Amino acid sequence: MASITHNPSTIIPPRMLVMKEGSSDEIECSVHTLPKPLLREFGHVFTDQYLNFPPDGSASTGSATLDMLAIPTNQRAREDLVAIGDHIEKEKDRLLNVFIEYARELCMNIRAKGYWADFIDPCSGLPMLTLNCNKVYSEVDGMECLLNYKAYNAGFCKILTHPRWGSAVYPATIFAYAPASIVSELVNEYPSMK
What we know:
The protein is of the alpha+beta class. 29% of the residues lie in helices and 25% in strands. The protein has helices spanning 36-46, 86-112, 139-147, 180-188; strands at residues 10-17, 27-33, 67-76, 116-119, 150-154, 157-161, 169-178.
């Protein structure tokens, strides 16, 4: 098993969680402040849209500091996702649906507390909740920066390699502009995989 070195930006190191007890759909999740290279990338993707939330300006941060946060997720695929075929596409669809369910719920929980959150569609690289954004976010670059995971080039495509799962991994990211303590609390409410 490869040794994993955590970045100084890590608030919660990667841990396996599930949406609800008894589910077999595991998600590796961690929480990070955005390091400089990702802050620049974030600005290209979202511009300043996150500053306009909530639309009515009703959020009260009190004395809490707002942080730009990334919540990278990785799922272990049942197949090596570098391969091709209908069974690979079905597995990608399954993983996409698991991620969207988790990301939508977490983002809605963050937004319910009056803070901005959005997630990246892993298929397009575009934000799912913030409108009028047309710049693509690179999941592979994000995982390299935040988690020190390695990648390699296969033609014109970068392939992420997870330290334990190799290229049988499905990366996807959630972003938030909120106090790190609140986001950490919400992430920690999800049960860990036993």
